[in-house]
Amino acid sequence: MEYKKRNFFLIEYLGRILVTLCGLLMVVITIAIIVFIVSKGIQSFTQNHISLFDMLFSKKWSPNDPTNPSFGAVIFIVGSILVSVGAVIIAAPIAISIAVFTNYIAPKFGDKILKPVLEVLVGIPSVVYGFLGVTLLIPLIRNMVGGVGFSLFAGIIVLSIMILPTIASIASDAIRAVPKDYLEASYGLGSTRWQAIRLAIVPAAKANILTAIVLGLARAFGEALAVQMVIGNTVKIPKGLFDQTVTLTGILTMDMANTMNGTAWNNALWTLAMILLLISFLFILVIRLIGRGGKRA
Amino acid sequence: MNAKTTDKVWTSVLYVIASLVVILLIYLLIVILYKGWNFWDINFLLGTSSDTQAGGGIGAQLFNSFYILVLTLIISVPIGLGAGIYLAEYAKSGRFLEFLRLCIETLASLPSIVVGLFGLLVFVTMTGWGYTLIGGALAITILNLPSLTRVCETALLDVPKISKEGSLGLGATKWQTIIKISIPSAIPQLITGIILAAGRIFGEAAALIYTAGLATPFLNGSAPINTPLNPFNIFRPAETLAVHIWKLNSEGIVPDAQAIASKSAAVLIVMVLLFNLCARLFAKYLHRRFTGTKRKSKFIKRPL
Q1: CA distance B48 to B54
Q2: HSE (CB half, 13 Å, CA atoms) of B269?
Q3: What global pTM score does this model have?
């Protein structure tokens, strides 16, 4: 047999360089996204001389007004915050209950049924959630409350179902990580199962459950199509749960194609994208801070 | 109320919540399938869509979805695997690794619309391609790289140390060990992860609206490859199935927009469920094969 001489050192180093480049590529992509979005986003301040103060604190959004256009982002930010916080308020308690349930009440049911159910719920594409919202939820709201049905409330419900699996799976990991000794020690002190869960186990997993909730909030904040399809997309601060409003992601999906590149309107939209990006950094920062606090404790 | 009753009450409350979540999913699935009944009709699945007349199909959209999926996997799997290998085998803890992890975390939590807008800036405007299949594929590659990297990294870290050490002890180089030992024994986890990623790619829409576009040219298999009419030309605009559903809902003027959207949603859900099922069955099959519980495997047995 002929032995083919190969330069193993060369292959070794080439391989190493190749995979290192793949790692580097992730860094390059991340930096590129930040640089491109931010450099486009600050154009409304550098080119169109819109004041940052107006942008962040004005409620008036009339970018196509020929004489006196204004570019207040408050409505979009408030809309996004309302809908995502609302979704978390509904989803978090349910998700934490499920996490407790799968770990302590009925592990078999949780493992065999609930876990696959959550996985399928994660897998459903967001347009399908939006579509379900339009065909099921909107007519329901229209019949029960009146009005058009497209509302902040519809957005909250759709989003809460979408982020439920995210929160539940991370919270479940958090609760699983609590040593079983906690339960046994509580039993030894004469507590019931519920008392052990409420007073020992959930508090012990608090930091990671909080991380789960923030991740859910981040996902809700960045979700675009499902919310845009049901929230009504009227540019105003909602007067109530059943009023229409609009989100940052919603205005971006709808208006970016309607505007000419380089106009003040278009640049203002890029600024909104930049705000969205910065807020998602804020979430990462919060998660890191929680993680650090958890480690110290 | 004494402690024992409270315990019983809360236990039942948790049972009710858990059951409600299960019922909710079943209800949603039934509604989607019921509303989109008859979605398997071949004239619908393969028919051409019309912007104005009723009775259109989703042939082109379905093809585009699959084509973008394949393109995305071709681009993202090697990069994700490479980055996974780097993180699992080569990276040394330090400033750079910490920064790399921060970058991956940042990428993973970016809203998909932001990635879509980045795609619009780079793959559509800067390159001058306009809305293209390849632009869409690159945008969802960015979206999926973090999770793929994580899947590859954990799969490689799960390979028993003993097999790697055995290989190194026999005189293999590190790279040979990775290629011949680590990757083959991580294959079950890798494939499962990739199939699950495929399900997500298939349903993605927000990142595609501004990269692959909202329209599909009238496809014709016999057109030359460099024209937008050829289905395999990667430099043509392509509306995927998920984007189609969104478009029908927001600006559809076809009389049967509702019916088409319902059926498309059913097709999309069935596909996603299939991906999910495939991942599960495949993982089970490979696990059985690799652990040699049924018949002898030619691969290394994993220590239990």
Answers
A1: 11
A2: 27
A3: 0.89
User: What percentage of chain A carries pLDDT values higher than 70?
Assistant: 97
Q: Are B176 and B240 in contact (CB under 8 A)?
A: no
Identity of the amino acid at A67: T
**Beta carbons of A252 and B85 less than 8 Å apart:** no
pLDDT of amino acid B297: 47
Distances (CA, A) of B201 to A119, A229, B68, B205: 15, 20, 8, 9
**Of A124, A216, A200, which is closest to residue A168 (Cα–Cα)?**
A216
Higher pLDDT, B42 or B82: B82
Size of chain A in residues: 297
For residue B112, what are the CA distances in angstroms to A21, B103, B109, B116? Answer: 24, 16, 9, 6
Residues of B with Cβ-Cβ distance to A291 under 8 angstroms: none
CB pairs under 8 A between A and B: 241
* Nearest C-alpha neighbor of B11 from the set A210, A172, A195: A195
Domain-wise residue ranges, chain B: 36-291
Residues 188-217 of A with CB under 8 A from B: 191-195, 198, 215
Q: What is the pLDDT of residues B230-283, one digit of tens each?
A: 888 888 888 899 998 998 887 767 777 888 889 999 999 999 889 888 888 887
Assigned architecture for domain B36-291: Orthogonal Bundle (1.10)
Q: How far is A104 from chain B (nearest CA, A)?
A: 10
Q: Are the Cβ atoms of B203 and A128 closer than 8 angstroms?
A: yes
A16 at interface of B, judged by CB pairs closer than 8 A = yes
Task: Give A143-210 as a DSSP string.
Answer: HHH-S-S-SHHHHHHHHHHHHHHHHHHHHHHHHHTS-HHHHHHHHHTT--HHHHIIIIIHHHTHHHHH
What's the token pair of residue A227? Answer: 């919310």
A187 alpha carbon, distance to own chain's centre: 38
Q: Which position has the token pair 């059913």?
A: B266
Contact B24, A164 (CB under 8 A): no
A156, A86 in Cβ contact below 8 A? Answer: yes
The pLDDT-based confidence of A291 (bands split at 50, 70, 90) is confident
Q: Provide the residue ranges of all domains of chain A, joining segments of one domain with +.
A: 8-41, 70-296
What is the predicted ipTM? 0.90
A136 contacts on B by Cβ (under 8 Å): 31
Q: Does A125 touch chain B (CB under 8 A)?
A: yes
pLDDT in tens, B116-153: 999 999 999 888 888 999 999 999 999 999 999 999 99
**In whole numbers, what is the pLDDT of chain B averaged over residues?**
87
User: CB of A47 within 8 Å of any CB in chain B?
Assistant: no
Residue B296 pLDDT class (50, 70, 90 cuts): very low
Domain A70-296 coded CATH 1.10.3720.10: yes
